[in-house]
Design brief:
By secondary structure, this protein is an alpha/beta fold. It is built from seven helices and nine strands, in the order αββαβαβαααβββαββ. It has one domain: Rossmann fold (3-Layer(aba) Sandwich), CATH 3.40.50.150.
Length: about 240
């Protein structure tokens, strides 16, 4: 992992304070280690535990991790390799927030004037996205570069299948996700995740709505869903990596 200051960048979609507070309460008595395979700026390490581990594909986001020794810059589809090599202990729980597949996935870097101003002053465009935070397109293989659709689903299913394949039955999951609006229509990202994890062998134990302060920019700003969701689940069967 490269942790130089010149690479540091903040993810535009970190765990919010209400989500972190709820996750902390959920995992307080869970057995570790805990892994976040969609770690962003690695706020998983702020849950008040010393057994959290993180994988994140973007070096710039990894560079601001509060626990660099427990953070690996890697495509999370290769988590089994990190475990088999002894670099990450086999997790007993997954706590994570995958990309939502919304306009944060746009590869747009700003208007020519915004790009020029950023080069001169470092000032970011008002609009938020992963690409804008990185000042480049997202890395190949990242689900963060795709709005919800076939490619988004393919990448995220591959990650979750790979991570699930290294867990033992009884492992726990807390997954934070949200729907969003596109063109005035609700995009059902949350139900897709419920269906995916069930297909991978997870039993959904609870679905916890959490009211959060949503971003209010964009063409659907008046249609924001006031709640995000935390899916709590237990692995009942082992699955083979796909």
């Amino acid at each position: 992992m490269n942790s130089t200051d010149t690479l540091a960048a903040r993810s535009p979609a970190p765990f919010s304070t209400p989500i972190l507070e709820r996750l902390s309460a959920i995992v307080i008595d869970w057995e570790g280690p805990i892994l976040d395979p969609y770690a962003g700026n690695c706020l998983i390490h702020t849950l008040g535990r010393d057994d959290t581990w993180a994988t994140e594909i973007e070096p710039e986001f990894c560079a601001v991790s509060p626990e660099p020794d427990r953070t690996f810059c890697a495509d999370s589809r290769f988590v089994p390799v990190l475990i088999e090599s002894g670099r990450i202990p086999r997790p007993k729980a997954i706590v994570t927030s995958p990309d939502y597949g919304n306009r944060m996935a746009d590869q747009y870097l700003g208007t020519p004037a915004e790009v020029a101003a950023r080069a001169e002053t470092g000032r970011l465009p008002r609009r938020r996205s992963y690409a804008i935070s990185l000042n480049r397109r997202v890395s190949e293989g990242s689900g963060a570069g795709h709005q919800f659709g076939p490619e988004y689903c393919r990448i995220h299913e591959a990650v979750m299948s790979s991570v699930t394949s290294v867990l033992e039955p009884g492992a726990r999951l807390a997954l934070n996700v949200s729907n969003h609006y596109r063109g005035g229509e609700l995009v059902h990202v949350f139900p897709w995740w419920v269906t995916l994890i069930a297909r991978l062998g997870w039993r959904v134990d609870a679905i916890v709505p959490v009211e959060t302060r949503r971003f209010r920019d964009g063409e659907n700003s008046d249609l924001r869903d006031e709640s995000e969701y935390v899916i709590i689940a237990t692995l009942t069967t082992q699955t083979e990596e796909t």
